Amino acid sequence: MHDNRWRKVLPLVAGAAALALTLGGCAPSGSSTGAGERPIRIWSGHMTPITNNFSPFAVDTATHLTFGAIYEPLFFFNQLSAEEPVGLLGDSYEFSEDGTVLTITIKPGLKWSDGEDLTAEDVAFSLGYGPNLDPDQVSVETSDDTTVVVTYATPKFTSASMILGSTWIIPEHVWADIEDYTTETNPEPVGSGPYKLKSFTDAAYTLEANPEFRDGAPAVAEVQDVGIDSNQSSEDLLKTGKLDWVGQFIANPDGVTANGKISTMNQQQDPTVIMTCANAELGCTGAQTDPAVRQALNIAIDRSAIGTKAFAGLAGEASPSFALMPRDEKWLSDQKLATSPQEPDAAAAGAILEAAGYTKDGEGFYGKDGTAIELDLFSPDGWTDYNDAAKLISAQAAEAGIRVNARTVSDAEYWTPISSGEFQLALYGLTQSLVADPYSNYDQYFSTAATAKVGEDPLKGQNYSRYSNAAVDAAVAAAGATQDEAIKQGAYTAIQAEIASDLPYIPVVLNASQSFFNTADFTGWPTEGDMYAAPLPYLSTASAVVLTHLSPASKK
After folding, report:
1. What whole-number distance in Å separates Cα of residue 554 and Cα of residue 556?
2. Greater confidence, 16 or 130?
3. Average pLDDT over residues 209-217
4. What are phi and psi of 392, to 5 degrees?
5. What share of the chain in percent tops pLDDT 70?
6. What is the DSSP letter of 530?
7. Contact 400, 364 (CB under 8 A)
8. What is the pLDDT of residue 555?
């Protein structure tokens, strides 16, 4: 699931007044009176109009609460913890000694939100449906109503978090009749999660507690997810008690939390990158397909200035290994790869380009064969941290003789070229692995199996860079086939050396993942002492786990 796609900071345009009218019938969230009688109001990143799509396979366009609140995976893997995963639909799982057979036991007595029984047959159906189907899957069988046995052609030890934590379980009695999952919008979803759809408009949609939920209906009876076209509007609505939970970049969080009703956390976990369309053999065009250009750009940018000026000093330092430091410290092969260079080196960038045959023109910009390097870098209009970062990158690259033109695009104009590969450079946020092991990053973002030719949307992964490297592919396969840490370390060493040199994704910063939530009217939020899930409303599964922990303060 592309959790990163929901981290949005939106345009500074009028919007608070219009949304206030939408929410006008609700009591202010700052008052405890009646808190248990109203929905919790969240902004998970939707712009208006919200698309009426609840398909768990529509990762670009589905409503955000589709993922976790309505449809669930078997287990929840807390990416902020090294503890064992928490069973949702699943009760237990076990691999065979060679890792090719996975036996899953689900909880007994499960129900879909329409009252139908949820059994192992639904799980087996889901594992073989559409993009869920692993090409290495040989067979999937059920031995009883709660047991599923999946056989693979290769060991799947390291893929456990993706199979068990990122595969959405769907009801066979609904989806067996859907011929084309790629166009299905699923406006009347039937799921297993704690909530079900109550109502929908293009300005907001409301979920209500699912009475069939295995743990009983959640204490917060309704969740309203709104569309907002302004990050300033979101901030204003938080301050005035019209929103209860958001995840967005706010340069001055103290201005929101000063009233004592809203609390905040900042988990630095997902790297912001310059994503390049890197592979000319798969159809990418432009100077960025040359690794030398990517290497030069990597050391031309001033990450220290970007972190201070664009991210208000709230971001961290990203690693070209794409392991999360310090969580994944044991998997780092070379301490030089712990962080990307923080200060620019224009001279070294020029030396890389000159060694690759580039020369400067009369204006001081590098080119080859009479054609200057000219790269297009885009970010979504109103993602203010990204927009400011792109401007800084453009100016910093120019100082090293690399012309990068920064521009902003609409939401639709952003996702379409990324999905199709018809771009040169884009500021993008990669999601971090669900467990303290970077395997899923390498498998989903860097393997050839996770990409597609330009013009096609990668359906088996998130390798939008179109990166392909045989050495990386072999190492990903080796890491996925073992539980031996020494063998896995060797595979990761090979992967990290290749991707830090090839740089299909150029790390910029480790994102400031800020959450803001109403602790006056709702209790049960994650705390520093009990980080049971990341408190970000746009994250799949984690957001639903948080919702099931909450209670209206008036009920305490």
Report:
1. 6
2. 130
3. 96
4. -65, -40
5. 93
6. B
7. no
8. 58
Show the tokens assigned to 259.
């009233």
Structure tokens at 269: 């976990």
Say if CB 152 and CB 137 are below 8 A apart. yes
Domain boundaries, given as residue ranges, for the chain: 3-70+193-261+519-555, 75-175, 269-511
Distance of alpha carbon 435 from its chain centroid, rounded?
Answer: 14
Q: What's the rounded Cα separation, in Å, for the pair 379 and 263? A: 29
Bridge partners of 142? 148
Per residue in 306-332, pLDDT (tens digit) is 999 999 898 999 999 999 888 889 999
What would the CATH number be for the domain defined by 3-70+193-261+519-555? 3.40.190.10
Q: Which residues pair with 522 in a beta bridge?
A: 552
CB-based contacts of 490, cutoff 8 Å, min separation 6: 478
Residue 10: its pLDDT value, please? Answer: 29
Answer yes or no: are the C-beta atoms of 420 and 454 closer than 8 Å: yes
Contacts of 504 (CB under 8 A, 6+ apart): 275, 276, 278, 279, 294, 446, 465, 466, 467
Single out the residue of 480, 475, 458 nearest to residue 467, CA to CA.
458
- Residue type at 350? G
| CATH architecture for segment(s) 269-511 | Roll (3.10)
pLDDT in tens, 26-58: 433 333 334 447 999 999 988 889 999 999 998
Do the Cβ atoms of 323 and 271 come closer than 8 Å?
Answer: no
**What integer pLDDT is reported at residue 527 of this predicted model?**
94
Peptide bond into 326 cis (omega under 30): yes
Residue type, 517: F
Separation CA 503–CA 501 (nearest Å): 6
What are 497-507's pLDDT values in tens digits? 999 999 999 99
Structure tokens at 250: 């706010």
Angle (CA) 405-411-412 rounded to 5° is: 100
Q: How is residue 122 written in tokens? A: 């639904």
Residue 359 and residue 370: Cα distance in Å, rounded?
9
**How many helices and strands in the chain, by DSSP H and E?**
15, 21
Task: Report, as an integer, the average pLDDT of 170-175.
Answer: 98
Is residue 101 helix, strand or coil? strand
How many Å apart are CA 45 and CA 356, to the nearest integer?
Answer: 42
Angle, helices 485-502/470-480, rounded to nearest 10 degrees:
150
Residue 256 has pLDDT above 70, yes or no: yes
Which top CATH class is 75-175?
Answer: alpha beta
Q: What are phi and psi of 5, to 5 degrees?
A: -70, -10
DSSP state of 334: -
How many CB atoms sit inside 10 A of residue 177's CB?
7
Cα end-to-end span (Å), the chain? 35
Which pLDDT does position 59 carry in this prediction? 77
* In contact, 318 and 509? CB cutoff 8 Å: yes
